[in-house]
Design a protein that fits this description.
The complex is a heterodimer of chains A (525) and B (381). Chain A is mostly helical. Chain A contains 17 helices and no strands. Classes of the chains: A mainly alpha (525), B alpha+beta (381).
Chain lengths: 525, 381
Amino acid sequence: MAAVMPDHLHDAHHGPTGLMRWITTTNHKDIGTMYLIFSFIMFLSGGVMALTIRAELFQPGLQVVQPEFFNQLTTMHGLVMVFGAIMPAFVGFANWQIPLMIGASDMAFARMNNWSFWLLPVAAVLLIGSFFVPGGATAAGWTLYAPLSVQMGMGMDMAIFAIHIMGVSSIMGAINIVVTILNMRAPGMTMMKMPLFCWTWLITAYLLIAVMPVLAGAVTMVLTDRHFGTSFFSAAGGGDPVMYQHIFWFFGHPEVYIMILPAFGIVSQIIPTFARKPLFGYASMVYATSSIAILSFSVWAHHMFTTGMPAVGQLFFMYATMLIAVPTGVKVFNWIATMWRGSLTFETPMLWAVGFIFVFTMGGFTGLICAIAPIDIQVQDTYYVVAHFHYVLVAGSLFALFAGAYYWLPKWTGHMPDERIGKLHFWCSIVFFNITFFPMHFLGLAGMPRRIPDYALQFADFNMMASIGAFGFGLSQLIFLVAVVKCVRGGEKAAARSWEGAEGLEWTVPSPAPHHTFEEAPVFK
Amino acid sequence: MDGGWDMSLAGRHAVAASLVFASPAVLAQSRYNLQSPVTGVAAQIYDMHTLMLLICLVIFIAVFGVMFWAVFKHRKSQGAVAANFHENTSVEIAWTVIPVFILLGMAWPATKTVLEMKDTRDPDITIKATGYQWKWGYDYLQGEGQGIRLVSNLSTPRTQMDGQAAKGEHYLIEVDKPVVVPVGKKIRVLTTASDVIHSWWVPAFGVKQDAIPGFIRDAWFRADKEGIYRGNCAELCGRDHGYMPIEVHVVSPQAYSQWVAEQQAAMAAAAGDSTREWALAELVERGEKVFAANCVACHQADGKGLPPAFPPLDGAAIVRGDPKAQIDVVLKGRPGTPMAAFGALLSDADIAAVITYTRNTWSNKTGEAIQPSQIAAAKGN
């Protein structure tokens, strides 16, 4: 067992207080909380950018922003949401829950844990600050395709350094999670008895370690093309612009699963709790998750069907991509089989989890349609793709994050979240989400390209609808803030086992979880 | 109308007639679905998408039928007591294997279409489409019309975008010089770009091919129906990515031959422009038009630019100083910036005119007339 000695083993109150407590903390619960707060702030920042985009697209013509700034907004919305909101939020869940779920006293590398969090605000300041430098933020799209990204101003350099820093943070976080899970499980908890959330995070952590350096390499090559006369991505110097896309998507596609596998894990914890029935097909869930992770390394070029690959290349990546539907389908079937003949109740976390299955599956269907290379060539870089990835990233990752937050809030705060507020949040979110993103399928099919500040007149109705939905969706997220603040301040006292059907070690410690838990390793089963 | 995408006259009448009988269906087709295909490949894509949608719909109904049955019937409040099963090998094998067969059924037609899309052999006409920030250039390389060269700019006036004028029917999807091709012929499109990656996309043809600087890619289409078909640049290419549409006129073989003759006559006339001597006023007048079509998006109508990305021309040293330096920049561009190399894009007369214009407008008053012969000489160096 790794010997982790917290700075203040016996009493939480012996350490520094005030701000210094948070800056110097090595406690996984404190760090988890900071990750979650950070990601929510970034979520709101990225949301403001999205709403500015939707305000501009409310009707044809240029009303709110100019094209250059519009492109900065679409780019930064993507970067902030991916690297600032979704990824850190899942790391926050990992920090809070993995030690509690496997019966460990803390994360394996407690000081490194502190460092991996505190890198993030630095990266965020660089990223958001780039709006205020001459030339503004990078406007090359979140994919930062060369040679467009070579043309950008110094905002691009700031984004590159921000990505470097966030990558370092992610890799350290991932190493920490791998080591914690492999070495610090309670006696009796074999790998195949581990909660599924830990499994999905273990696999995600390996993906992170594998691909974050790839992204760092890609953006570093852009950096040297920009300033040091190299020609990695310029044909004039013997390079190739398409090589950037290969490298980027070799990172980018596993990244998609980095953002969804932990969501699968959260949902797999919640559904059995509220079905009062064990998870159906635990082993096949583990194998399906692993298959998705392995396949994710061989499908990257399905993002590049329009670059003009040879037919054999298109066919290989099409078949490989279609194959991912199989393990993903297995997961959905397993969740539904878990609900089947259960004793279901629909408290807020369960609503979010069922909403997740329903809407995420729609994103899965459009994903399958996009996998078909000829159809993808029609819808590539249109609003259809925008609709598709928001169905899997918002209705997928984000909804699962909300499900997890409502599920574990009692453990974190000691109070039950207000059911009325939570349900209001859910119903507003799912209705406005669909008003926002469903019409985008039609826009894309009818021929509206993405990343344009203005559009032809036949797209006006659905854009107006999407914009109205977006403002509804954005405002609905403030309900979550109310729910969390209310839950922190008070409310019905939560029992150690806060939900009737909840299973697992985290429900054996009191609510709220004391500052230090499992100083003596529990015996599992 | 059909939501804005233009059709031939016959097509319009057909739509008008069918509107009377089946208006929801027609509206549904243009607003909720892929555009009406006019090539064999696009039709295959259209049908494949419909098939996929139906398969997904069936799966959707089956899967969520089961889920919502559980949601409504297996509730604790309905007195449901939880069963305790948690695995079933045969069911698990079934729902792994059956999807594989469904996928095989989907992959078969898709494979055939991929192979057909990639078969660019034996074209009747070959056209090179070059992406520039932010316009398309076309060179007819082979077949009838060989040697024709045109540059296609957005023709929607700025005032419509700013809301100072009412928006026209083809707002943002109209150009000054469209691509013209004959109906029923195999047209091979070679794509490339001069600065960043663009993408040449005409939805009704089922063609979307990235245009990559320094490389040539190809695609093809054979339009079965005369008409005007519109598309956009599909790859983010900077500031005015949303303002470089594609307009293809598919015409009868006779109309095409006539268009080719007109283009060739116009090119012969333009060749004369580059050799004669021009007066200052004449150059400024022409230069203003060239500036409006090519330069205004970045350097702005008042010549102040949008610093720092797009520098001002008004009062700029390079515009007021030695014309050789300015000619050099306009001809060769500034690598690593959006400033394109216009040497291959505009005629000598146009380049001379636009340079003369910038040197004699706003507060720039050099009084110099730059002649097309000077441009030709600079190119020779």
